[in-house]
């Protein structure tokens, strides 16, 4: 995705959504280089602290520092004024390793059967809201969207999804609370198949305290979906609340053990200074960040663009 296809409006929203993180990172950065003209060991130590306290995570921070050290060793006179540019370049390069598949918009493969997205994540991270916003984006792109309420563990989950389905005006396949989630997933795919859907988004329960049950449930949902579409799901999307910082790391760890996660969405970045968590999670789990949530509005779910993201944080 080229920098030019990122519209001015989207960029303004991104800048606004990441303002708290940027402000926090910048105030720490300026303290880290105060009174210094060139990048020396002390500046690098301070920079390490800035990144760790900005929720980038220890391992990822060390990688970034190593890359910067390498550049400093080649160019002894690197000034602190160039630090931002170097940070931007090195972090963008790091993100590129895990987000090599930048999609330019809410596009789907062109094929007869629907694209199936299974959504996972604990309650309260913005799962239902993200599904609603995704449904809206796909519908706006002219796609026929079906939703499936396979989080049958909480009545509220089914009700919330119904509100979004009504708001976006897309069909929702549901059963009563306590029904078998796999059966809901099966019904959803059958309906989608007979009605020529382009994309199916299935919500699942996010009970992390019992990982074995979660694993079994997600495997069962997958197996049942494959009876309708052998390749389903095409995507397992893990939703993480960016504002929880290091806790999001822990959730990512648990979910990647429970099922094969293929894409990430980080929500609630606008309300926090912990936006650096996007960099760490992308690097540590080697799973592409596909979407970021940067506000309450229905339009505030964006396709993650690494260049623009880093640009918003460090320029």
TrEMBL record:
GTP binds at residues 121-128, 203-207, 267-270. Its main location: membrane. GO terms for molecular function: GTP binding; GTPase activity; signal recognition particle binding. It is found in: Cell membrane; Cytoplasm. Keywords: Cell membrane, Cytoplasm, GTP-binding, Hydrolase, Membrane, Nucleotide-binding, Receptor. One of its GO terms (cellular component) is plasma membrane. It is a peripheral membrane protein. It holds the Pfam family SRP54. It catalyses: GTP + H2O = GDP + phosphate + H(+). Its EC number is 3.6.5.4. HAMAP family: FtsY. Involved in targeting and insertion of nascent membrane proteins into the cytoplasmic membrane. Acts as a receptor for the complex formed by the signal recognition particle (SRP) and the ribosome-nascent chain (RNC). Belongs to the GTP-binding SRP family. FtsY subfamily. Part of the signal recognition particle protein translocation system, which is composed of SRP and FtsY. This is Signal recognition particle receptor FtsY. It comes from Prolixibacter bellariivorans.
